[in-house]
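ok trying again, last paste got cut off:
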Amino acid sequence: MKRLLLLIAMIGMIGLAACSSDDSAGSEGKAGSDGEKTYTVGATQIVEHPSLDEAYKGFKDALADAGLNVEYDFQSAQNDQNNVKPISDGFVADNVDLIFANSTPSALGALQATSDIPIVFTSVTDAVDAGLVKSMDEHEGNITGVVDLHPDAIKETVKFISDNFSDAKVGMIYNAGEQNSVAQIKAVKKAAKDTGLSIVERTVANSSEVQQAATTLVDEADVFYIITDNTVVSALDSVVGVANDQDIPLFVGEPDSLEKGGFATFGIDYHTIGYRSGEMAADILTGKKEASDFPVEYPPEIQLFINKQAAEEQGVKWNDKWDDAAEFVETK
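nice, full thing came through this time. structure:
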């Protein structure tokens, strides 16, 4: 009998030890089969489209280059705001080591879900206006990241339009429910104020409305300018179709949309900002720094990107100066 009681006690101790190991995984990672720590990252993204997907890839590449073992739980909100916070609530319940929030709605949902688990974001246009941080310089709390809008990107794109399509009416489509889009529309209007450009707007509530919005702009707009609005970019093919059929030059907010048929942009490489976010995450996961040690960062640089094939399909008269000024992107 005494031997039986001793055996039961030993089994109980082994069970408690196993539970303790799992419970500690959320804050310090857990030991993998090879003895190295394995970290868990919850990755939340508002919708899947080329720019956001490339930022996520850059994030993972940075953690791989840092030599970390990471298990990812990737979840897309399928462009439904109602799905955003429950995704992060699930990550909190699972006690992940870090949340990667890829877009403004995703970052807001993560911040609402936790003030303890570190959050690293990217693909956020205006972190201050969105309420993620108080300012770009002063920082505190469990969230940091890299925004996707270089301070000069919209200004340079608007100047390019004005220089090459003087006095044009610029057709813009966006979801007024996306805070990042509202901020960009304000920036476009401010940049266009001292030019001969005028803005013609259409708002949409979901991706299924994008093609109709583009069609209604055909008689009013000389060029289209689609900013990094997740709802519209996820349905960009429909805008490209209208632009090609009607010979309307299509400006976009980032280079990845050129690969889908946009004509030109002053933009950034989303893999780069995702990679930088991953570098921040690596330091946070390994305890070298905390999220509050990183001020929110801007993309390092911008440049002119042009898709020559799209230019031809949209009836754009070629300017030889662009040959030296632009990096060229092909339709995929």
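cool. The first helix runs from residue 2 to 23. The two ends are 74 Å apart (CA to CA).
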